[in-house]
Amino acid sequence: MFERFTEEARRVVVLAQTEAREAREPFIDATHLLLGIAMVGGPGGQALHAAGVDPSRLRTAVREVGDPSSALDADALAALGIDLGKVQAAAEAAFGSGALADRARQGRRRPGGHLPFTDHAKKALSLSLRAAIRRGDGEIDTRHVLLGVLGAEEKRSSAVLDHLDVDLTDLRRRLDAPDAA
User: Fold this and answer.
1) Contacts of 106 (CB under 8 A, 6+ apart)
2) Residue 124 has pLDDT above 60, yes or no
3) Of all helices (H) and strands (E), which one includes residue 175?
4) What is the mean pLDDT of residues 118-124?
5) Which intervals hold domain Clp R (predicted)?
6) Given this model, what pLDDT does residue 2 score?
7) Pick from 15, 34, 63, 149: CA 20 to 30 A from residue 9's CA?
8) Taking the mean position of all CA atoms in its chain, how far away is CA 129?
């Protein structure tokens, strides 16, 4: 499949890995692919920019939204009678602001080498091939990768785009239009 990727689409994957590594994530997920698309440009990046999404705003939104599964973790702890807010406040009082977040990032740090893709990121890349085939395009470019990310419906990337007020239906329509370059 990767042999059909344009140079821009390949750069998306490389930049996604860089973004994940800089965020000290143990994996590459769909939000990292979004960041790569926004940075590389091409048809997918242009569509994101037209929707008001640039790399800086996207990176900020990723941090602000965080990981949706963390809300589930807080709910699970609350069911056990543990107030995550109080635990965090106590940790910050003892060790300084952001102590738990810093420790979590350190614990997730991976040694050098390639980071694995999450299942949703793998699905997004697979769907990018399907998008190219459906459109009759011979190569997979950033438009197809973005269509794949949107099709994968990963919670974190969907929450980030929602946070940025991106109209996903309109974005898909513009990307998939027969006359889209």
Assistant:
1) 24
2) yes
3) helix 168-176
4) 95
5) 2-181
6) 77
7) 63
8) 18
Distance in angstroms (rounded) separating the CA atoms of residues 16 and 122:
13
Question: In the numeric block, which tokens belong to residue 15?
Answer: 């930049």
* Residues 6+ positions from 32 with CB-CB distance below 8 Å: 16, 17, 19, 20, 23, 25, 121
Paired tokens of 9: 């689409």
Match 């994957």 to its residue by tokens. Answer: 13
- Checking if the pLDDT of 52 tops 90, the result is yes
Indicate if the pLDDT at residue 53 is higher than 60: yes
CA–CA dist 66, 71 (Å, integer): 9
CATH, domain range 2-67+114-176: 1.10.1780.10
Residue keyed to tokens 């800086």:
56
- What residues does each domain of the chain span? 2-67+114-176, 68-108
